[in-house]
Task: structure prediction
Amino acid sequence: MYKTSLDEKNKTGRTGSTADIVSDEKTELSNGEINSVTTSNIAGFEVLCDGKQTYVNGKLLNRLNDTYSKFVFANEPYKDTTLSLINSCFELEGNKRLVDFEFKDRELDPATLGSKGVLLDVYGTCSDGTLVNVEIQISNLKSMNRRTLYYWALLYGRRLKAGEDYKNLDRTVIISILSYNLFEEQIWSSYHSCFAVLNTKDLRHKLSEDLEIHFVELPKWHKGDVARLNSLERWLAYLSPETTDEERRQLAMEDAAIDTAMKAEKTFLSNSGYLTAYERQQMYLRDMRAMKEAARDEGHEEGFTAGRAEGRAEGRAEGRAEGRAEGRAEGLAEGRAEGRAEGLAEGEAKAMRKNISALRRKGKSASEIAELLDINLAEVEAYIQQDKQ
Result:
């Protein structure tokens, strides 16, 4: 086990330097394997590499962080990473690969006053003239499909000046790498989708080659053996939190562009200015997540309260309706019962009156009839009275 200490003072006085770095590296024998742990303290930021993963202030390094991804993919010294990512999305190999990329101003002013402007992650022109915008999106935005089309429209019309011919418009491509699923599995199960303007009659004839939109949905991608990945999957593995640093080093040995990304990462993690911006972005993401959870909980509570009130009102209304229905049903049943009873009573009364009349014709007295029919004398006298009327 050994420990090294570095104290390199920044002689230029600029912020965002590698000044005040303390490094503690330990190599230990654990379970028969070498386990290397490196801890660096850069102006109050702790960067820990435990041989498996890299941590900043105790949390796993987020390579999808906006500050980090821009440093790796929108930085002239590391342009090879950008070209490699674009070529992998276009699935270009050999001499078909794009060989250069020129970064452009990432801020797009709205075309008309009052319209919505945008700030792009990575934007530039490829060697064949194609305009490409690469977006790495962590937050699950609503209407991502329309948002992407809006970005594409701004980019497509940006370079055409008044009076110029439409043939001067350039092919424009947007690549969106998403940390969430945009499409449900039953709609599109693959992690990579590519959209164009197609004739809906045959889904083959393109209106133009100028529009191309790629979505890469990270949750749908499964790493597998890093030695058997294609070029796009190697980049997804590099960005994925499930990939170990050892696997990233293996990828870097197979892919020169990922080796460049690893070198960029080392520079990023040794600079206090970059780490400050990185941590600020992480705090923003945490705050946004907390706000969404709070809003969701509040909405759930409001929905529960409103739903309970609505449920009570609906329950009362339904109860009244059901009560009326039940009342009608009960009334109908009672009516039927009463009708049957009344009908039976009327039938029995008619039969009783007929029997009394027959006995009277035989000369029986009222008292004799009452005794023979097992009814009281008053009832017999009442029937006799009715017959007289």
Observations:
- Residues 272-361 form the longest helix (90 residues).
